[in-house]
Design a protein that fits this description.
The structure is a homotetramer.
Chain A: E1 4-5, E2 10-14, E3 21-27, H1 37-47, E4 64-66, E5 70-71, E6 74-75, E7 80-85, H2 95-99, H3 107-114, H4 130-148, E8 151-159, E9 162-163, H5 173-177, H6 186-201, E10 208-215, H7 229-238, E11 243-248, H8 251-254, H9 259-262, E12 284-285, E13 288-289, E14 294-300, E15 310-313, E16 319-322, H10 333-359
Antiparallel strand pairs in A: 1-2, 2-3, 3-7, 4-7, 5-6, 8-9, 8-10, 10-14, 11-14, 12-13, 15-16
C-alpha cells in the first residue's frame, strides 16, 4: 500500500534506510528495449550521498544489481528487479532520535500510524528510499529517449533566497552537472555552494526550488479528469521527501495575469502539429500534452534533521530537546535533481503506454 | 481510464458538457451512514452556474438524482450512483469553436489525443464534469464529519492581485458563504467582486488562489512513499480544471526559511496526542497526518475562454482568430471553492479507509 | 470496491434490483469506434426476464439509455455511461424474505457483511445487476469484432443431467438463438425445455453448464503470472451469480490424460503463425493466447430461490421456514448465455489494450 | 503488468527461472505482526524441487532472505521484500528447447507476445516463479491464523485416475505431510506414488486434482459483483502454472442437483452466527463468506515438458521433433499443494483487510 506507482509502467519499491537493502521492481516495461546499464548506475551516482562537500559525508556505493527481466541488456517485457545493498550503517548515531521525535520528520507520525517504527534512520522516510525511484526512472528515461527523443532535465533554480532565473530552453545536462549544486548558472552556483556550506557549518539547513523541463515529450498523453498529466506529475514530485509545493507553466505567478495575457496563441505550423506563441500552459492543456516543453517547479523545504538543538517530545510524550548527531545533508536539492527527473520520467512513460493502449498509434497524435 | 479516483472510497465520473447528463458512482462507502441528501444538493448549488452576477449567466438547476446504494437515506455499502441531467443546451454558441481551437483550452489536445471530440462545450474538459466530484465529495465530507468531526473549508484567498491574508483558523462556512466571491474577508470581498466584474466587462478573465483547511483530520492517515497524503492531495486538486500550482503548509515561501526556523517543535500534550508549536508542515509529516490542521493552497489560472479576440488555428492547422460568444465565467474561483473541498474530502475519506484496512483501530492512531 | 472490472477497458456498475435503476460506466474504450447501438439493446434483450416460458414471468423492458461518451454513435474515448431504469417493482412479493434468509442466497451474508441490506429482491446479488455487464460486454464484442474479426459465442451445453456434446467449432449464433434454452443441439433443446418446465412446475430449480468459444481471438494477449488470460477469464465468469466451477480446454477431464496425450503438437504453418494439432490448451498457453479458439465451460448451480418450502432462520437467528412467492427463473442458464459472452468479451478487450500498451503492434504478435 | 496481486495486501513478484534470483514484495501487511520466519522457510521447503523421488532431481536450497519491512521479526507495516537466489543452473539442458517450441508450454506464446524470451528454463513461466507466491502466502497464513485462527490446508485428491475421496473436515497437516505425494489417504498415497514413478520412468507425465479447505475463515469477507470471494479464489489458483479448472463447494457435480437438494438450510445457532446443514455453497454465498469451511478443487494438467519425443516447430516455424533432456517433475501436484494454500491465503488476507477498511469491525460480521 503506497509503495507502488504507475498503471502500465508500474514500479514497486521496498527497503528501509538501515535494513538489508533497498530496491525496486519495474513491471510493464516494453520488451526489446536495449538498456544502457551504465546510465542507470550514473543516475544513482548523481543521487548518492557523499558525492561532494555540500552533501552528507556518509559514503555509500549504491551499486545496483539487476536480478531479472533482462537478456544481455535487452528487456524481456517481464519484471525488472533492481537491488542496492545497505552498507555504511551507524545506527548508534541515531540512538537519541529513538527516544526523541525529530521535529518535522516522520518519526512521530510513523509511530502514530503503525504503533511501531524502524529504530533508526527514518525507515521508509529516509532519502535512501528514493534509490528505487531513480533506478526505475533511469529506465523510463531511456524508453522515452529511444522512442520519442524525449529529454528530461532538472536543475536547482533557487537555494534559500538565491535564485537563478534562466530561460528553460537554455540548460543542458553538461551545464547542470558542471557544478556540485547542479545549477546551470555558473556564477549563481558559486554563491549557492557558499551559502549551503555556511548554513551547514551553523548546524542548520536550507531549502529551495528545483525546475524541470521535458523536451520533445510524447504528444497527446495524459487523461481527462483525474489522471490529467499535470495531476500525475504533481503527485509524482510531491511524493518525494521534503517537497512543499508544485507549479506547472506559469504557476502561482500566472494567476496574476489576465486571460488575454495568459492564453497561449496557437501558431500555424503547416504540418498539423501544435505550436504555441507562449508556453504559460507548461506544455499541458486540458490534462493532455500539446508537444511544447513541459515545465514544472518543485519547492523543497529545509532538511528537517539539523545539529542545532530543538524543542521536542520523546515517545512517552514528555518534553525534551534534540540536537541531531548523524551525518545529514544541509540541503537536499543537489541530490534531489535526479529524483525529480526520475519521477517525471516515470509519469511520462506510464502515460505514453496508457495512450498507446487506448488509442493505438493515431496518425494525428504523433505517437 | 482516468475517470476514477481513490482506492477504497472510489469514485468514477462520466458525462460531457452537452450530452444526456453527467454523474458519478461512489463505490466503497461504508454501510449504515445516514446521509443528509439536502446537504449533497447544497454543495452542488454552491458549484452551479448562474448563482451570482460574477458567474456565467447559464442557468442549470443541477438537480441530483440518486439511483442506487441507499435505503431510506442510509448507505447500503453498495455503489451510490448519482446523475444530473443536462438541460440548458445552446450548442450554436459553440459553433465557431468547432472550427477554431480555443487557446489554452483542451480543444486541440483532445483532437491530438483521440482524433475526435465532442462538437461543443469542451466535452470532459468542461467545468460541468466537476458535478460528479462535488456530489461524491459531499458524501465523503459527511463520512468524515460523522466519524471524526472533521471540517473541510476552502475560500478564495486571492483574485488577480487582490489578496486576503487571513489566519487559517479564523474562517467559518458562514463567513465564506456571506459573499458571492467566497472570501471570508468581507472588505476584500467587495474589491474582488468589483475586479471580476470589471474584467468581465472587458471580455477578459482572471485567476487567483484558493486556500483550504482541514480541521480535526483523522490522525495517522497517508502512506509512506508514493501515496503520501500531500501527494494525493496535490493530484486531487491539480486534476481540477484550470489549476497551475499547489502548496502545502509553508509552501514555496517556506523554502526561504532555515531548518531551525521551519521545523515545527513538538509540545508535550500529556495525553499522547501530537501537537506542534507552529504548523509549517501543514498538518502532514512524512506523508502522514499528525492531527494539526491540514492547510493547502491552489493556484487557478484565468479562464481560457474569453470574448476578446485571440490568435489561433482551426482544425486544418490554418491561422484564424477567435472571439468566444458563449456565456463563460470571467473567474472560476468562486465556483471552484466547493470543488477543492470535495477533492480534499475524497482523499481523506479514502486514506482513512485504507488506514483502517491495514492497521485497524490502533490505540495510538486516534482512529 | 468490487464493482469495477478491467484495467484499461474498465467498467464500473451500479444498481440494486429494485432501486431507481441499474447501469454501467465503460471507461477506456478506444475512440472512433462506430457502435451499433441496436446490437447493444439486442444483447440486453437476450438477457432480460420474461423472454420465454422458461424464464421468470417478470416483464422488464430493460431499455438502455446512453448518457455520454458518444458522438453520433461514434466513441469519443471518454466514459460511456449506460442506464436502465427499474420498472416492474413488486416489493410485496419479497416481504417474507425480509424476515427469513433465503437458503444459499446472499441475504444472510450481506447482513453479516454490511449490517444492513436492501429490503427486497437481493440488492446487488440480483441477476439484474448483470445488465451493466451485458451492455458493456456488447461494446467490447464490437471492438474485438471490428479490430480482429473475433467472434464470442456461448451456449447451453448441459441442463440438469441432459448434455449436448457438440464440437466447439460447430455452433453458430443462429443455432444458439433458434430455441429458447439456447442449446445449438435442436433435439436436445426440446428435452431441456421440457425438463426445465417440469422442474419449475414442481416449484424447484435446476442448473447446468454453459460452454463458450472465442474464434479468432487476438494473439499474444494475457500476462504471465497473476493476470494469465485463463485466470482473468475464470474470475470474470466466476463473478457471475450462481457459478460453481470453471474449466478451460481439457478442464477436469484432461487431468486424466498423460502428458504425451495432452500436449498440443505445433504444426508448421509456413506463415509464422501458431497452429496446434489438438486444442487441449483451450487456446491459451502460459497464460497467453496462441490464436487457437479459446474454449471454456462454466458450471451454474440450480437457482437458490424456489417455491418449495425450505428450512431457514430469520434475521434474529430463529428457525423458520420459507417458500418463495416471487417470480423466479427455474433455471438461470438460458439468460446466462449472454452474460458469459459479455464477461469473456470484457476480459479480451482489456487484455488486448494492455498488450497494445506494453508491446505496441509487434509484427510477430499478429496484433 | 500482471506480476502484482491483491488490493490492500498486495504482492509483486519478479524473477526468471535462470536469472540472478526470484522474489516478492509484500506491501500492505498490517504492522506489529510477529512473524515466524522458520515457518516461511518451511513453506518454501514444501515447494522446492528435489524434495523426494517423485519430484525433479534438480537441487535448489531456495533459502529465503528478507531484506526489509521487519524489526526483530515484527512487521513494520512497510514493504517486506524477500529474495531467493538462483543456484543450480544448467542452461545447456535447455539448449534444444531454444530452437524448438515445447508443445503446450509457454515458449511459443511468449515469443508471440514479446518478440523475445529468456533463452532457457521457461522464464516467468517456470514453476520457480511461484517461490514469491509461497513466501508471501506464508505471511498471509500467519496473519489469518493470528487474527482469526484460520487454517488453510490443501492436499492431493487425485493423481491421474487415482482418487482419494475424503471428507474435507478430516485431513490434518500431519496427514498431508506424512507422505511425499501429499495425499492424506495413506493407502491411496502409496498407489499414487507408484503411478507417478511408473509414468516418470516412461518419460511421460500426469496431472490430477488438488483440494483445499479453509477452516474458520473470516466471516463477511468478499465483495458483491466482480470481486466475489470465489471469483478472486478462482483467479488466484487459475494463475498457477498448469491449472485447467476450478470448483467451489458442489462444483460441476452440484449442477446435477435440484435447487431443493442443493440449497444449504440455515440452522438456528442461538448466537447470531450463521451455520448451514450442508455446505454445497463451499462457504461462500453471494460472493461473501458465511463462516462455513471454504472448499475448492483445482485441476492440474500433466506436466508439459516430457522426455518422450513430440512433434513441434522451431522458432522459424519449421516442423521438428523434441524430446526434453532437462530434469522435470513427472507430476506437479505434490509441489503445488503449498502453492494452492498460498494463493488462497493471499486472497483471504486481502479481502479481510478490504472488509475492515470499508466496514470496520461490525459486531455482526464477527470480525
Amino acid at each position: 500500500m503506497g509503495s507502488s506507482f504507475g498503471q502500465l509502467f508500474r514500479i514497486s519499491t521496498f527497503g528501509e534506510s538501515h535494513g538489508g537493502g533497498v530496491g525496486v521492481i519495474v513491471d510493464g516495461c516494453p520488451p526489446r528495449l536495449c538498456l544502457d546499464l551504465a546510465a542507470i548506475q550514473a543516475e544513482l551516482d548523481r543521487r548518492k550521498p557523499g558525492q561532494s562537500k555540500i552533501t552528507t559525508p556518509r559514503k555509500e556505493a549504491d551499486q545496483v544489481e539487476i536480478l531479472s527481466g533482462l537478456l544481455d541488456g535487452v528487456t524481456l517485457g517481464t519484471p525488472i528487479a533492481m537491488v542496492v545493498r545497505n552498507k555504511d550503517q551507524r545506527p548508534q548515531d541515531y540512538k537519541e532520535m529513538e527516544v526523541a521525535f525529530r521535529p518535522s520528520h516522520a518519526d512521530a507520525t510513523y509511530q502514530a500510524k503503525y504503533g511501531i517504527q524502524a529504530p533508526s534512520g527514518g525507515g521508509r522516510a529516509s532519502a535512501r528510499e528514493t534509490i528505487g525511484r531513480v533506478a526505475a526512472g533511469a529506465i523510463a528515461k531511456q524508453l522515452l529517449a529511444q522512442t520519442h527523443g524525449t529529454e528530461i532535465l532538472a536543475w536547482v533554480r533557487r537555494i534559500h533566497n538565491l535564485e537563478a532565473v534562466i530561460p528553460t530552453d537554455l540548460p543542458t545536462l553538461e551545464m547542470v552537472e558542471a557544478n556540485i549544486v547542479r545549477c546551470p548558472d555558473a556564477a549563481m552556483a558559486v554563491q549557492m555552494i557558499e551559502r549551503i556550506e555556511a548554513i551547514g557549518r551553523d548546524g542548520d539547513s536550507c531549502g529551495g526550488v528545483i525546475e524541470c523541463v521535458v523536451r520533445r515529450p510524447p504528444v497527446g498523453i495524459g487523461m481527462p479528469v483525474f489522471d490529467k498529466l499535470e495531476a500525475d506529475l504533481a503527485k509524482a514530485v510531491m511524493s518525494l521527501p521534503a517537497t512543499k509545493g508544485f507549479e506547472i507553466g506559469s504557476g502561482f505567478a500566472g494567476t496574476q495575469l489576465l486571460g488575454s495575457e495568459h492564453n497561449d496563441a496557437f501558431l500555424a505550423t503547416g504540418d498539423g502539429s501544435l505550436h504555441t506563441a507562449t508556453n504559460n500552459s507548461g506544455g499541458i492543456q486540458g490534462g493532455i500534452s500539446n508537444g511544447e516543453p513541459i515545465v514544472i517547479r518543485v519547492a523543497f523545504k529545509p532538511t528537517a534533521t539539523i545539529r542545532k538543538e530543538q524543542q521536542t517530545i520523546n515517545a512517552r510524550g514528555e518534553a525534551t530537546t534534540l540536537a541531531a548527531k548523524g551525518r545529514h545533508d544541509p540541503c537536499v536539492l543537489p541530490r534531489a535533481v535526479p529524483m525529480v527527473e526520475a519521477m517525471v520520467a516515470l509519469v511520462l512513460a506510464d502515460h505514453w503506454l496508457r495512450q498507446r493502449g487506448q488509442c493505438g498509434s493515431a496518425a494525428n497524435s504523433g505517437n
